[in-house]
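Input structure tokens:
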């Protein structure tokens, strides 16, 4: 069993965003007593859709906002990837795990390529640090309390197997539906990556001197599912404890009210020469997800108001 964790938290919504504040409050309370040191280093403002940008032509400045011995909080003028580089090379000597999030809005399908949240996890991954990116599919008045508790409970179990050969060169991307859309009578789905992204919209304008400029903004691409998708999800859940070849995508899971846990790797090769034992990865993650979901849902249902007060 692994020693207590040194955890690095970051995001792309900014150091004062509700998602990361909720996370570090739950982890610093550490009710299950498996944390050693928590370092929060996040951008000083929103860096959404920043991708894997790294600042190299100007210096990145950091500022210590809070320290109490177990929890240190820093803001940085750089990107989420910058925060991982500085946090793991300067602030915290031994980082066991990087958690990036909780992002306001999902990170699914091709959106991973432009996500600052996921890119922070990838930056950890390429530096041989275990990592998890976390997002919530809720834009209006998002409630991060259940997500924070779930991630804390999940890591309690995941920490004991994440350094095994099975999870070599694997990072996780976890997405949650809003709590009121969550299928409470079901279980998280271990998913594969889907072909989907937000649609970039372009609005050209003219300034008073008739110079052209553009606003680029995002629209949520509609995701429509026929009955075969719903049937496939049901078959997956009915065979949850069995090894099977039923694959659900991250989009299909989250848009239909299920937690999506995607084990990913970062490999541009057409073929993965490592021939990873992905079915065993799926099996282990399902076991952890089941324990986590049941434990979290029971605790959250019995103490929802108290948990929400603690993280506000």
């Amino acid at each position: 069993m692994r020693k207590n964790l040194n955890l690095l938290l970051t995001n792309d919504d900014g150091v004062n965003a509700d998602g990361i504040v909720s996370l570090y409050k739950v982890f610093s309370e550490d009710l299950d007593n498996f944390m050693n040191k928590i370092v929060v280093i996040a951008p000083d403002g929103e860096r959404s859709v920043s991708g894997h940008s790294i600042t190299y032509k100007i210096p990145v400045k950091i500022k210590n906002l809070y320290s109490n011995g177990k929890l240190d909080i820093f803001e940085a003028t750089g990107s989420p990837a910058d925060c991982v580089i500085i946090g793991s090379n300067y602030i915290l000597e031994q980082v066991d795990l990087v958690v990036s999030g909780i992002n306001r809005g999902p990170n699914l399908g091709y959106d991973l390529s432009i996500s600052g949240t996921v890119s922070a996890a990838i930056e950890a991954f390429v530096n041989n640090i275990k990592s998890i990116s976390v997002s919530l599919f809720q834009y209006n008045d998002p409630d991060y309390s259940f997500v924070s508790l779930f991630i804390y409970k999940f890591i309690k179990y995941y920490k004991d197997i994440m350094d095994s050969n099975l999870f070599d060169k694997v990072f996780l991307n976890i997405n949650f539906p809003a709590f009121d859309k969550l299928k409470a009578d079901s279980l998280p789905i271990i998913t594969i990556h889907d072909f989907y992204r937000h649609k970039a919209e372009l609005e050209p304008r003219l300034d008073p001197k008739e110079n052209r400029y553009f606003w680029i903004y995002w629209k949520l691409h509609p995701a429509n599912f026929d009955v075969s998708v719903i049937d496939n999800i049901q078959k997956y859940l009915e065979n949850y404890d069995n090894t099977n070849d039923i694959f659900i995508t991250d989009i299909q899971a989250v848009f239909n009210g299920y937690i999506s846990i995607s084990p990913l790797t970062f490999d541009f090769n057409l073929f993965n020469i490592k021939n990873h034992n992905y079915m065993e990865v799926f099996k282990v993650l399902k076991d952890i997800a089941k324990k986590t979901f049941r434990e979290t849902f029971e605790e959250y249902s019995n103490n929802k108001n108290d948990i929400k007060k603690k993280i506000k």
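The chain has a mean pLDDT of 92. The two ends are 33 Å apart (CA to CA).
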